[in-house]
Amino acid sequence: MTSEPSTVDTPLKKLVGERTAKALASHLDLHTAGDLIYHFPRRYDERGEHTDIRSLDVGEQVTVLAQVQRTAVRPMRQRRGNLLEVTVGDGSGGVLTCTFFGNQAWRERELRPGRWGLFAGKVTEFRGKRQLNGPEYVLLGEGGDGEAAANEEVEEFAGALIPVYPAAAAVPTWVIARCVRVVLDTFDPPDDPLPATVRASRNLVGIGAALREIHRPSSKEELYRARRRLKWDEAFAVQLTLVQRKHRAADWPAKSRPGRPGGLLDAFDARLPYELTSGQRDVGVEIAADLATAHPMHRLLQGEVGSGKTVVALRAMLQVVDSGGQAALLAPTEVLAAQHHRGMLDLLGPLAQAGELGGADDATRVELVTGSLGAAARRRALAEVAGGRAGIVLGTHALLYEGVDFADLGLVVVDEQHRFGVEQRDALRAKADQPPHVLVMTATPIPRTVAMTVYGDLEVSTLSQLPQGRSPIASHVVPAAEKPAFLDRAWRRVREEVAKGHQAYVVCPRIGEGPQSDEEPPPEDDNGKRPPLAVTEVAPLLAEGPLHGLRIGVLHGRLPADEKDAVMRSYAAGELDVLVATTVVEVGVNVPNATVMIVLDADRFGVSQLHQLRGRVGRGSAAGLCLLVTEAMEGSSARERLDAVAGTTDGFKLAELDLEQRREGDVLGATQSGRRSHLRLLSLKRDADLIRDARAEATVLVEEDPELTRHPALAASVAALVDEERAEYLEKG
């Protein structure tokens, strides 16, 4: 222990003792005074304002402020001794039973009716009652032996705000509060990194006051000011990083790709069998102008499922080919890469048949490069790419391998960018002599604040119209546990659609036996729910049962590449009636004859994932139907989420819902770097105005001082909040 001033770098063992420091490090990854000071309370309890016990979920680790209502001692059935049942309530009508095993008469004396306390543990359910088994607790106010250690810090908050920290079973919130108090008593806050002009213009408190008030708030008003300042630091760090990168990118040289009149693009437009939507034309103009500049384009193209992004991307690729360069499209799966290849060959026709009988005079070649190509086919494809004869190159991460060389790579199109790591995208860009133009596509609509915060250095284009001929998709929740007859009816609907000559998808969350894949959730959660349904188990059951006699195919990520491609070709050709698959069909798969999709265990999928999945049906002239099968009960959060998906086809509304339900750190890329995120308070949903203001201040500051050389403390603070690895993630989405 030390009474000397402590800084953000002081090891915790010097301040709180070796044993406590070890617990903080092993359970919460907190090692220094700075780590602990930036471990902010999750919420604040206040006498008179209590957590609603009725809202707690079974399996949740909770800390609740509650009052002891009654106690009862009864003998245990299975072994000798007694157990103590303490019923606590929060004043809202919700009650919890805290159960203590063994003879603990002293607890009965301590936990007297009327006493208030903080109770921490895992919520379980027994015979319809919510329980905490053997919870940790600390009583408020005067009391018995068990609370002595905690009373010192609790008294500071008597009648005021009690911080409740993100905690662990071995390190409850009041232990964290005690450690924070010890650190704050000696803490010497860092020099304020935020320029005084920004603090003054935005009415922000100093960093020292903010860090003290967020842990030991003197009032609700001061707590609000502290949180606002610390949120600002997080938003400002992210926006400075993005604005700096955008500023640097504007100075990079790139080869202008203006296209040429009478070239492939004009010929392609003339042979298109349909009219472009006004949105496709407008976005096409934006992209064409970007490609014609001497700086690399960095544009994000977002559009609803089926809005025609691929045609927009193909037109951009043809403009680059007309300029003498090459374009590469990176797809997340071989299934999607092969489908893009077939689709582009169909759209281009003779324009993609350079050197072939019937090819157009100025035709190019479209090559597919994947890991499953045979040796001879691979050598031929690589020669076409290296020689520049292949103007358009499609592939998976196999494009990144050594030996894939381009003659003049001018444009990189990344489809469904969230499936790729930063290093993979960098490897492809490095194959060009100068930075190529980059077009990133996503069918997952992005809320405005996410676009501003995660994609802040990209220009954003949005396609919101659907091309003519696309049919509406009806979605319904099928509550299999409550109404089994509804599930029977779902399988009959599949048979009815097949009888009309259409096809169906059945989507499962899991592949089946064998190691887990990226496309499936963990087989079982902490609460012991049954494993999610698996493709390899469901397909034979359907073939023997409700879909007996139909032609059923199976598709998942563990199949060999040639087998996956063969299955997709068979399905696209109408040789299969039903495709039982994982989320490998989530992006880009285009079979216009498929009209119905059944998603099993739909509650195991995310909102955006479900929206993507159902976009696989209704792609032709016949209406689409998506049935979301679930055992989640009415009124549960999972069921409400599914009802929301079924209730709208507006991807932007669903994206906002998805954002509400995801942790901010996930959105901001904390999980991408594998490190603990320092972005803890900022809410992309609630803090849109603050993020916008931070963006404006960051833009002004970077224009005046691009590398923050006149603000070294700020530069260091940004580096701490947004480390280089996460900055790379933020830069490229």
UniProtKB/TrEMBL annotation:
UniProt keyword ATP-binding present: yes
SUPFAM superfamilies for the chain: Nucleic acid-binding proteins, P-loop containing nucleoside triphosphate hydrolases
Pfam families: DEAD, Helicase_C, RecG_dom3_C, RecG_wedge
Record GO terms (molecular function): ATP binding; DNA binding; DNA helicase activity; hydrolase activity
Originating organism: Micromonospora sp. CCTCC AA 2012012
Keywords annotated in UniProt: ATP-binding, DNA damage, DNA repair, DNA-binding, Helicase, Hydrolase, Nucleotide-binding
Protein name, per record: Probable DNA 3'-5' helicase RecG
Composition skew (Acidic residues), residue ranges: 516-525
